[in-house]
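Appendix B. Chain record.
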Amino acid sequence: MTSPAHGAKNANFMKALVYHGPNSLALENRPRPVILEATDAIVQITTTTICGTDLRILEGAVPTVAGGRILGHEGVGIVDEAGSGVLGFRRGDKVLVSLITSCGKCRFCKKAMYSHCSTGGWLLGNSIDGTQAEYVRVPHADAGLYLLPPGVDEEAAVMLSCILPTGLECGALSGRVKPGDVVAIIGAGPVGLAALLTAQLYSPAEVVVVDIDDNRLEAARAFGATTVVNSADGNAAERVMLLTQNAGVDVAVEAVGLPATFDLCQAIIAPGGRIANAGVHGKPVSLHLERLWASNITLTTRLVDGATTPMLLKMVQSGRLNAKQLVSHRFGLPEIIKAYDTFANAAREHALKVVIRNARPDA
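Structure tokens predicted for this chain:
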């Protein structure tokens, strides 16, 4: 990673974190975004964060992200300008930015598959510039922004841009967690921990969390895991099967995106069980149908749609869901390169989710 760039402040420019190819980032002065479509809004970002997917981009594992892209798909901020076609927001509104952009009208949106919107989906920090900047352009703003209720903490709210909807939709809901289930979550990173927090809403009997990082496993225990397993010795499958009297688990959530963790899900799933893939995979995995063909297994894959964001926002507002506990480190935007280093070395730094704050608009 390269060092931050500095330059004279100009009203037409902003600071932004720019990806320049594998392992190359720079904090640069870039032109402020402008309205391109009547349905756009420009949001001044006050709080953003780094996703595990951003690390995969930095590795060069997400080919849709070109060099020169401003990264980031999570954010809270204040509407600076709204296009003439935006009906629900106006300048000065405090908003949550969803990672998913959706028109609400195409055939995919009508099926609530917002991640596959014909003119949207995951755009921010992917095919268009993202939120790790002072300002961001949000297409289809009426569907991609949420008014932030008074009193909701920004650090809690920014967890609703991506990881909590991902944990819920790709994990607990895809895995059809129900009362009395035994659930295993493979990976105790932010998405795995989000799956843990949201799976508990459905009253499973046990939730086993597997990871190689003892610090994250302790966090998982604090967040409600009934059992944690360190998989560094390669014996996690045997230990989980022993915990279940060799019955296996009803739901296995893959929250890492590696062949080894996907294999572990297949090794511990019970007959009739559900494997819910939430991890971002950059390499092929093996599907062991020679063992599972007769086991009535359901395997789900999906990209988060953000359809559950309004519900999660209500739960955070009511205090029913403590999203802020996912935050471990805080940085200012000028320190974002350091924030990436901290997040990329989570075991060394004892990092969960890192938050990046910009100066307030009225500061």
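Further analysis of this model is presented in Appendix C.
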